[in-house]
Amino acid sequence: MENQAYIVGLDWKRKFLPIWGAQLFSLLGSGLVQFALVWYITQETGSAAILATATLIALLPEVLLAPFAGAYVDRLNRRLVMIIADSFIAITTLALVLLFAFDMIQMWHIFVAMFLRSLGGIFHWPAMQASTALMVPDKHLSRFAGLNQAVRGGLNIVAPPLGALLMTLLQFYQVVAVDVVTAFIAITPLFFIRIPQPVRKDASRMITPRMLLRDVGEGFTYLKKWKGMLYLALIAAFLNFLLTPSGTLMPLMVTEHFKGGVWQLSLLESIMGIGIVIGGLTLGVWGGFKNRVHTSLLGVIGLGLGVFIFGIAPANMFWLAVVGMAFLGFMNPIANGPLQAIMQSRIEPEMQGRVLGLINSLCAMMMPIALLIAAPVAEWVGLQVWYWAGGGLVMIVGALSYFVREVSELEALRPSIQAAVAAEVNA
């Protein structure tokens, strides 16, 4: 089913761009807070285990609850879901601001806040993704995904050095408070702009636990019927397993391997953001190969190469690590943009919350497993191992995926799914 039936009029830019633009303010605030909290934990503990624990706690909602959140998104008004989710995240951050302001902060407070912010995110993300598919024409989804990631990459350039600068000029609680302001900026357009809502025959029925379980089951059945998408989801989950430790352990690589500080960390994250901008703009102009999966797999191989370069950089060659992060950033939109466009254009609008939530949960499930393994291994054999080993395996997986027909011809081999899903679930 094509999503075009749900697009209202030809003025989609006038309706979509204000929502999208306001969300970018929220992303900037979230980036500042994320950078600040990670650096705070690094400075206070200097422990790979505690950094991994913080990431693990933030992942728990995605692992355990994302499929159910996606089922709710498919049944509820998506505009209202985004308003409530953003408000919940803002209130959680405000509590963190007060704890820092009155010098009452403890490490477990940060862990709880990370969990709750992630909880709000698992509702907001599928609602925004599914809404994008209903408001942006299919022919523009790949290009828009590239431009979208380019802008987000620009925020990655700005957020780390801005966070480092603000931490030198302001009290820590004032830095965290920025996210509260940007969250309310993100909410404002949602009160005035209508978002198309897919029609469901059972939309008026009260939502019960049994109904949610059935909805989640439909998401599982959908993936099972479309083997190419299932295989791609499993590949993405495995790549998350390989790459998650590289992001989590980067602050320790800066302080322990390269003997740097907050400005070196901000440089790495900013240069990765520059790479994302260039890669996103490249995808926005180019549009990728006609076979969007081939574009994505090329990006996956590039991601692995970037991480590998970062991992092999000697302590006295920080510039090589910068090159690795720049290349990693460039390949990020090439890998993710086309895949995001495929999901938005080929998964039925009324199924997107469930299917995207399930895929998100599957990918997130691999991340805590990786962190539980990576933290002791990093302290035992050194931090660099997860970079060169993980990067090398990612390149191999990306190359081999070209030879899996269900993956390489994902869109061409897409079956007619919805009737089969309904028949199996009702059986």
Give the helix/strand layout.
Layout: H1 12-45, H2 48-75, H3 78-101, H4 107-135, H5 141-169, H6 172-187, H7 209-225, H8 227-248, H9 250-257, H10 262-286, H11 292-312, H12 318-346, H13 352-381, H14 385-401, H15 405-408, H16 418-426
Helix pairs in contact: 1-4, 1-5, 1-6, 2-4, 2-7, 2-13, 3-4, 3-6, 4-13, 5-10, 5-12, 7-16, 8-13, 8-14, 10-12, 11-12, 11-14
Give your account of this protein's structure:
- By secondary structure, the chain is an all-alpha fold.
- It has a single domain, classed as MFS general substrate transporter like domains (Growth Hormone, Chain: A), CATH 1.20.1250.
- Helices cover 80% and strands 0% of the residues.
- The protein is built from 16 helices and no strands.
- It has helices at residues 12-45, 48-75, 78-101, 107-135, 141-169, 172-187, 209-225, 227-248, 250-257, 262-286, 292-312, 318-346, 352-381, 385-401, 405-408, 418-426.
- The model is unreliable at 1-9 (pLDDT under 50).
Summarize this structure briefly:
With 427 residues, this protein is mainly α. Helices cover 80% and strands 0% of the residues.
CATH superfamily: MFS general substrate transporter like domains
Number of helices: 16
- By DSSP, the count of extended strands is 0
Write down the CATH topology: Growth Hormone, Chain: A
Annotated CATH architecture: Up-down Bundle
Strand residue content: under 5%
| Rg | 21 Å
Structural class: mainly alpha
| Molecular shape | globular
Low-pLDDT runs of 5+ residues are: 1-9
